Amino acid sequence: MRHQSVAVIGAGLAGATLTQRLLEVGYQVTVYEKSRGTGGRQASSGLAEATVDFGAPWFEPVSDKFRNWLEDRPEIRRFIPPHRDFTGLKLDPISVYLASPKQSTLTRNLLEGAVFCSSSRVGKVYPCPEGVTVESDSGQLLNTHQAVIITTPALQAEVLLSAIPRFAEVAKFAESIPAWVVALGLRRRARKSVELFSGRHPLLARAIRDSNKPGRSAGPFAETWLLEANPQWSEAHRDSDPKQVGADLIKAFQAIMEEPLEIAALRTHRWLYARHRSAGSEEYLWCPENRIGVCSDWLRWTGSEGAWLSANHLADKLLTSLKTFSSHSSINLDGLP
Ligand SMILES: Cc1cc2nc3c(=O)[nH]c(=O)nc-3n(C[C@H](O)[C@H](O)[C@H](O)COP(=O)(O)OP(=O)(O)OC[C@H]3O[C@@H](n4cnc5c(N)ncnc54)[C@H](O)[C@@H]3O)c2cc1C
Question: Which of 166, 226, 252, 283 has the fewest CB atoms within 10 Å of its CB?
Answer without folding.
Answer: 166
